[in-house]
Amino acid sequence: MELTKEEESALKGEQGEIMQMAYRILVATGESTDAEKLVPIEWAHLSGVNYNTIGDAGEEFLSSISKSARVKVKTTLNPMGFDIDNVSNYNLDEDFISKQLSIKNSYESIDVTPSFSCIPYEIFNIPKKGTQVAFAESNAAIYANSYDNLKTNKESAFSALASALTGKSPYSSLRKEDEPNITIRMKVDNPNELTYGMLGFFAGKVGDISVNVSGLGEMDRRQCKAMCGGMGTSGTCAKFVFGEGNSDCEKIDFDEKEMQKIHDELNTAEKGDIITLGSPQLGLDEISDLVDKLKGRSFKKRCMVFTPRIVKEQAKKIGYTNELERAGCEILSDCCTCLTPLINKDDVDAVTTNSIKGAFYLKNSNGVDVNLKSLSQIIEDETQ
Amino acid sequence: MKVLVQGKVRGIVLKSEMPINFLGTVDKKTGMISDKNHDLFKKSIRNSILVFPSGVGSSVGAYTIYSIKSNNSAPLAMICKKSDLTVATGCALANIPLVIVSSEEFTSIQNGQNISLDTKDQNIISCIN
After folding, report:
1. Fewest CB within a 10 Å sphere: which of A208, A242, B2, B129?
2. When comparing pLDDT for A365 and B65, which is higher?
3. With an 8 Å Cβ cutoff, are A158 and B59 in contact?
4. Nearest-Cα residue of chain B relative to residue A155
5. Is residue B58 within 8 Å of residue B87, measured between CB atoms?
6. Which residues in chain B have their CB less than 8 angstroms from residue A53's CB?
7. Do B3 and A31 count as a contact with CB atoms less than 8 A apart?
8. Which of B89, B98, B100 sits opposite A159 (nearest CB)?
9. pLDDT confidence band for A156 (50 / 70 / 90)
10. How many CB pairs lie under 8 A apart between chains A and B?
11. Does A1 touch chain B (CB under 8 A)?
12. Hey, which residues of B are catalytic here?
């Protein structure tokens, strides 16, 4: 990899230990992914915030760098393990709370915007087409590449942090204009958000870096978001391109049979003890739609709704949060269905959700069973 | 041969034919491998030149490598056959030299060998008698 004089000097340690470490990460990542150089980025989005995922080692590391590190570009943050306004309501142990607070403080002291959201693309202004960013959250990276015309690799927590500290990222894989070599042909009729999530999950399994997807017609933001959530969960693929692709692309059909296989893999229970909505977190249009669907109805069991704090505040002004609470929803910010310690297998056997990403992590990390259903079906079955 | 993290060390090779999952199968305090199905079970990677095919498992394993180093139980250097981002970023965080070698080079490195590794040298890896 070719480095500029300034980059070389940072790697030698002439700009301090933190910059040296950050450049070591960029070089190690760049050499592993055959990048020929580093390019400037304008926005980094970091993962590795939830104490459940990064553990003591992560907490200690962040605490140690927070004394002197500062981010160089706009940097936003993934969800953590709890809603800061409701910490005491969830029987979390003291150790978890103090370690999570330490992580929160570390990020804030290095000047990261404490957004605690996995949908930066819905709550921040999107830079102009072609802008290089570094998004570590998988669904956000896919959304940025596929829908917002930004450029990011599927970053790790570490490469995104190094990019935040240096304002640089290796020029590899998705930052280049390579075309996908696989085309997935959508063959399922009347898709809902669950179908798009499963299509994404399928695409993530068969694709490597990027895939074409044909047979979709015009897609809206929410359908895209469902697809991005599914795709980021199942593999390394971080971009979909609408259309057939060129003629030498391998063609793979996503039909009812393939969809059933994925449904059988993720759906492990007939019914759930509680309902969760939001993984990725719900945006304002999804909240609005939920309010509409819940007119005159209320949930028969506990329903947790995950949404970024800024969306919750907007929803409150419009009167949506009142409506949701009236219908029995518990609204949580700063955290997400995915990897939350708030859902524990000691208290809950199974969760009903319409999220593919949520389903995968509830099963594999929280160890609870999942009852997978579309939102319309959930409203029909679980409200009165 | 590809240099992922630079450095210069001398030490004894600890070689495994199996990938290592740093998250969960390496004790952070002692550097001991705790996976009983692993060929390095109950061996400590501390102060060795650790030679293994590649890392596997969660990327959070990079933090484990950093922890092992903070506890003075880390290898002096790592040599892999295939690069993976967990080991690459872990070694970068912890400042542990890391090189990727070809299959032939990997095969030629023997367990227990005393070697010197210098990423700035023309012969990055050389045997010491």
Report:
1. B129
2. B65
3. yes
4. B85
5. no
6. 60
7. yes
8. B89
9. confident
10. 73
11. no
12. 58
Q: Do A28 and B64 touch (CB under 8 A)?
A: no
- Would you call A170 an interface residue with chain B, using a CB distance cutoff of 8 Å? no
Whether A267-382 and A5-175 are alike in CATH topology: the answer is yes
**pLDDT tens track for A353-375:** 999 999 999 998 889 999 999 99
Classified by CATH at the fold level, domain A5-175 comes out as Aconitase; domain 3 (3.30.499)
∠A183-A282-A238 over CA atoms, to 5°? 25
The CA-based angle B18-B106-B125, given to 5 degrees, is: 130
Measured CA to CA, the distance from residue A136 to residue A157 in angstroms comes to 6
User: Is the complex ipTM more than 0.90?
Assistant: yes
pLDDT recorded at residue B60: 83
* A48 part of contact set with chain B, CB < 8 Å: yes
CA dist A153 and A159 (Å) reads 10
Pick the CATH number of B2-127 from 3.40.50.720, 3.40.50.1580, 2.60.120.10, 3.50.30.10: 3.50.30.10
Query: Per-residue confidence at B76, pLDDT binned at 50, 70, 90?
Result: very high
Exposure on the CB side of residue A37, measured as CA atoms within 13 A: 9
